[in-house]
């Protein structure tokens, strides 16, 4: 009987690979299945700041102990001869689009998962795809021939197993792994519970509260107990532990309508002062509110996320408001409330996120107050938006953005938080 085989194609050290492949002196020496032919190169947010973080590193650089999210200064202590390049986000996005197009040429049923990953599916057995391993190799070869970028491909009977087998493909010579449906239990169940993709902190709960050491241990936990502890996630965890997944390929996953707006920035150093973190929150909120107004929408739930020093730990907390809002004066106090409630006040902050969701069109949400001159406030923001659109967002800034904590001037020259 013909069934779909699902695959996940992932680019190796994508940002760093783009930089190596785009430089003739390195690309000419690079071999597809020999990581040692890469230079010890890292992509850092700002090479001029040793406090900047590593965004990507080649396998050669990682052999010295360099890792993503490490401070550049620490990486240079491990290897002072590292080649350090500033990120070029616009270039990476262009390459990403072209790679996704190649993937779609080989496998028409395709879904972009991230900037450097894509799911695909194809029927098997079929005349078009008689050999799954050969089909995967065809895609891998096309990506290498056109972009000189290495890729790893995991395949299985569903998307989740494709993700799990992809993790094994990264450590397999040739970079392609296919987990057949009948082999899934024997391959999946011996793995440690931490290897279950998508669990995050829930893996620690499974280990400590349920004494689950392996994925097989999780499969033996009654689904009712998992649902009692994790809610709807309990059923998902149970399915995954049995190698099951009901999600399908969504070719339009990158073009769905907005359910919310958010902005995130990684800071050039750890922030320890509340006043500094508050400045960054306000700058991000201004950007979120601008996007809300452009979409003629307002939101009823506000969210704040902090990532702590060394990019480990943190939180994301949200609060539902009594009314919809689209301007900082309404939302900023709520964000400060979340900050004071959930941040301990002394752990260093390295990244900040602000988001607004539960949207509706502003024309349906406006509620006049006896104490607010709403029309004048709205006209003020429309004027500010027009200035920003014509002259750039740094043409008119809040005074706090000129302080040491302000990030707007630096971030305005970036794409997705990184230099274009």
From TrEMBL:
<dbReference type="GO" id="GO:0042276">
    <property type="term" value="P:error-prone translesion synthesis"/>
</dbReference>
<feature type="domain" description="UmuC">
    <location>
        <begin position="6"/>
        <end position="200"/>
    </location>
</feature>
<dbReference type="InterPro" id="IPR036775">
    <property type="entry name" value="DNA_pol_Y-fam_lit_finger_sf"/>
</dbReference>
<dbReference type="GO" id="GO:0006281">
    <property type="term" value="P:DNA repair"/>
</dbReference>
<dbReference type="InterPro" id="IPR043502">
    <property type="entry name" value="DNA/RNA_pol_sf"/>
</dbReference>
<dbReference type="InterPro" id="IPR022880">
    <property type="entry name" value="DNApol_IV"/>
</dbReference>
<dbReference type="InterPro" id="IPR050116">
    <property type="entry name" value="DNA_polymerase-Y"/>
</dbReference>
<comment type="similarity">
    <text>Belongs to the DNA polymerase type-Y family.</text>
</comment>
<dbReference type="GO" id="GO:0003684">
    <property type="term" value="F:damaged DNA binding"/>
</dbReference>
<dbReference type="Pfam" id="PF00817">
    <property type="entry name" value="IMS"/>
</dbReference>
<dbReference type="GO" id="GO:0009432">
    <property type="term" value="P:SOS response"/>
</dbReference>
<dbReference type="InterPro" id="IPR017961">
    <property type="entry name" value="DNA_pol_Y-fam_little_finger"/>
</dbReference>
<dbReference type="GO" id="GO:0005829">
    <property type="term" value="C:cytosol"/>
</dbReference>
<dbReference type="InterPro" id="IPR001126">
    <property type="entry name" value="UmuC"/>
</dbReference>
<protein>
    <submittedName>
        <fullName>DNA polymerase</fullName>
    </submittedName>
</protein>
<dbReference type="InterPro" id="IPR043128">
    <property type="entry name" value="Rev_trsase/Diguanyl_cyclase"/>
</dbReference>
<dbReference type="GO" id="GO:0003887">
    <property type="term" value="F:DNA-directed DNA polymerase activity"/>
</dbReference>
<dbReference type="Pfam" id="PF11799">
    <property type="entry name" value="IMS_C"/>
</dbReference>
């Amino acid at each position: 009987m013909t069934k779909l085989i699902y695959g996940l194609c992932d680019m190796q050290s994508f940002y760093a690979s783009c930089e190596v492949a785009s430089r003739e002196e390195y690309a000419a020496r690079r071999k597809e299945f020999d990581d040692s032919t890469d230079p010890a190169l890292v992509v850092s947010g700002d090479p001029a700041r040793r406090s900047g973080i590593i965004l990507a590193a080649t396998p050669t650089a990682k052999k010295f102990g360099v890792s993503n999210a490490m401070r550049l200064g620490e990486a240079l202590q491990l290897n002072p001869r590292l080649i350090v390049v500033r990120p070029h986000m616009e270039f990476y996005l262009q390459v990403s689009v072209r790679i996704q197009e190649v993937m779609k040429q080989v496998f028409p049923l395709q879904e972009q998962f991230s900037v450097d990953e894509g799911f695909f599916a194809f029927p098997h057995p079929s005349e078009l795809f008689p050999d799954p391993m050969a089909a995967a190799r065809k895609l891998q070869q096309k990506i290498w021939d056109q972009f000189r970028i290495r890729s790893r491909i995991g395949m299985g009977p569903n998307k989740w197993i494709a993700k799990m087998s992809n993790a094994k493909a990264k450590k397999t010579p040739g970079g392609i792994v296919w987990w057949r449906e009948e082999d899934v239990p024997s391959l999946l169940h011996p793995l440690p519970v931490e290897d279950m993709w998508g669990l995050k902190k829930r893996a620690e709960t499974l280990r400590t509260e349920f004494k689950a050491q392996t994925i097989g241990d999780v499969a033996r936990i009654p689904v009712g107990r998992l649902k009692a502890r994790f809610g709807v996630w309990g059923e998902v965890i149970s399915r995954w532990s049995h190698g099951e997944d009901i999600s399908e390929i969504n070719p339009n996953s990158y073009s769905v309508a907005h359910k919310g707006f958010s902005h995130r920035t990684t800071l050039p150093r750890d922030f320890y002062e509340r006043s500094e973190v508050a400045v960054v929150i306000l700058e991000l909120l201004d950007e979120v509110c601008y996007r809300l107004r452009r979409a003629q929408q307002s939101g009823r739930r506000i969210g704040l996320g902090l990532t702590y020093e060394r990019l480990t730990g943190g939180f994301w907390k949200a609060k539902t408001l009594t009314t919809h809002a689209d301007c900082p004066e309404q939302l900023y106090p709520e964000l400060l409330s979340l900050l004071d409630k959930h941040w301990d006040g002394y752990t260093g902050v390295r990244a900040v996120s602000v988001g607004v969701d539960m949207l509706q069109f502003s024309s349906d949400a406006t509620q006049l107050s006896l104490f607010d001159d709403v029309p004048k406030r709205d006209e003020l923001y429309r004027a500010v938006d027009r200035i920003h659109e014509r002259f750039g967002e740094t043409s008119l800034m809040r005074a706090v953005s000129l302080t040491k904590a302000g990030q707007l001037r630096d971030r305005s020259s970036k794409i997705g938080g990184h230099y274009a």
